[in-house]
Amino acid sequence: AETGNVQCFSCIDRNDGGCLKNRVGTVTCNPDEKCAETITTIETSHNQTNILTKGCGDGRLENTLEDFTFHGINAYIRSSQCNGSFCNTNLKTDQNESSDTEYSNPNGVQCYSCIGNRGGECSTLKASVVNCYSKYRFCFDGNVTLTIGNFSAVIPLKSCSRTSRCPVQMFSSNEVTLKIKGACCEGNLCNQDLSNKTQYTDLSPLVPLDELVTKNTSISSTSVPEMS
């Protein structure tokens, strides 16, 4: 093992070739750090994307693989740290994990589906319409915020979902943090735009706006006896 500060490859690849040989950068790490690389796979009911980062790591771990599940959205995080300069060359964007997906049992529900690596990819005009299957009987619209060290990215998602209620969740694994935020709904193509209907753990499932207005009107019109 080397002593002193190691030098490492440094890059971010969002399926755009950012870690190719002609684009990768270098970085000098602190004495207690190692070269590191992490590939994060986000998998929805019908789509998948990989984000690869290379740089300096905290030096504590060598190889890890963790997975998280959010109402049918899966995330896999594979991390590797190594000794020596420029040793972080093992992970590629075509290396990923995935669940065993079975599309042969459509259930009659349709949702918009997309993963937005770059701007506009998850707009309703560009999102695909997919046939949900098996236990995916609802729709999701939201985003994943991925943070790895100093790198942060917001990834829009539309997908089939396994539940009608999808409160905000956060997962952490070493230097990686995933925050999934959005909402789920019931009905064909109901996930066109749920950006203003984020669900939290202490809120009831989505309620149509006109129903809320009706309830509020009836409450405000109820007379309350004056205190004597």
UniProtKB/TrEMBL annotation:
GO terms for cellular component: plasma membrane; side of membrane. The keyword Lipoprotein applies. It is found in: Cell membrane. It is a lipid-anchor; GPI-anchor. SUPFAM superfamilies: Snake toxin-like. InterPro entries: CD59_antigen_CS (IPR018363), LY6_UPA_recep-like (IPR016054), Snake_toxin-like_sf (IPR045860). Its main location: membrane. It holds the Pfam family UPAR_LY6. Keywords: Cell membrane, Glycoprotein, GPI-anchor, Lipoprotein, Membrane, Signal. PANTHER family: LY6_PLAUR DOMAIN-CONTAINING PROTEIN 3, UROKINASE PLASMINOGEN ACTIVATOR SURFACE RECEPTOR-RELATED. This is UPAR/Ly6 domain-containing protein. It comes from Hymenochirus boettgeri (Congo dwarf clawed frog).
